Probable tRNA sulfurtransferase
Amino acid sequence: MRTHEPDAVAGRGTSIEYADMLLLRFGEFTLKGKNRARFEKTVLRHVKEMIKPYPRAVLGKEFGRIYVQLNGEPAAELAGALKNVFGIASISPVKVSQSTLEDIISVSRRLLEILSPAEGSTFKVNVRRVWKEFPHGSIEMNKLVSTPLLQGYPGLTVDMRSPQLELKIEIRHDHTYIFCENIAGVGGFPLGTNGKAMLLLSGGIDSPVAGWSSMRRGLEVECVHFYSYPYTSELARQKVVDLARVLSRYAGVIKLHLVPFTEVQTSFTGLGQDNLMITLMRRAMLKIAARLAEREGALALVTGESLGQVASQTLPSMNVIGRATQLPLLRPLVMMDKSDIVELSKKIGSYELSILPYEDCCTLFVPKSPTTNPNLRIVDKIEATLPGYEDLLAAAVDRTETVQITPYGGEKPADLVPAEAGIKEEWF
Ligand code: ATP
Ligand code: MG
């Protein structure tokens, strides 16, 4: 098998337009019985969602595999989208032939011509006879197919142990599948099979990566963003919508909760505690996000924090900030280097958006010297004595606007997203 690196997790295809079908293999969920069936069903549902824009594509399912018959739909584009489906370990572009010796040889030859292996390449034919009534056995077939192929390609030599090119042939009753390429998928757990979490999505580099990492572990993610209109602009909001859209490529659809944060934020000014401003803001975000999580049935909060990155991400800061909520606080990037996070954000496709220079609500009120070592008792006291603080938090939750984001923006028919009661559908 030739293996393509997942050079970009999203988007880019390879020259695999020869394919009649894509064969999708599940990752090792290391699960048995009922759970495995549930996981496979979830992957299938996700795949269904991803192929909706390709009406001629037809799905088939078998233990451990999904087939996508292309019927003329673009192979590379579909493979590019499907390798992003969590739980898919690999994809092979397949040529389909009749289950006759003549057709198998002729289609194999055509595939070899397309792949045009370099002079001196090593090669092997690997036949699996699933349909036992086929007149030739697997070992015999290896010879029957490889002999004419080698005659046509004198530059090829056979290597049974570790060939550069392994032509796999699966003989079934109705058709025979012929393939030799392997495109790496993202793997992970199928979406939503490990529950739901609320992601605090800022406009930065880190939080979209934290969201993607969570989704890859099987978490369904809803996003919550805090904005401070009029201090933050419409462009800043649009940037977050666009980032959520990048995430929706991996989920089909994503809910984004937009929280008006101006009143909460300005309530901290004039306290004479400027160095605690960020600590108080972060805690307020967690408190509001926790209420939204409860409302939406999410069991954890996710942030893009990484240890030591900024003043609010020292261990003492994380300690004091994290105590604002009882919910598990997941920080997928906590031990990662910034350069690795940047690398991942490029692969996911969020980097170019993240570096756009629009202001975040937190950068507006950043004090000269934010504390790296906040005092929990003082913070508790400030919050307890701030007039009307509880009401401010409750009002922010009440005034939160929720939108559904899909990968397709305005171009897609609304029927792709089932409208839920009380949720505004917006096509940005
Ligand atoms: P990012 O690149 O995600 O913005 P950062 O390194 O800039 O991260 P901070 O700005 O300190 O870090 O934010 C830490 C985390 O707090 C973010 O990763 C995000 O989860 C959350 N956060 C910050 N600002 C917002 C916001 N306006 N709305 C929602 N979440 C936010
Ligand atoms: Mg930020």
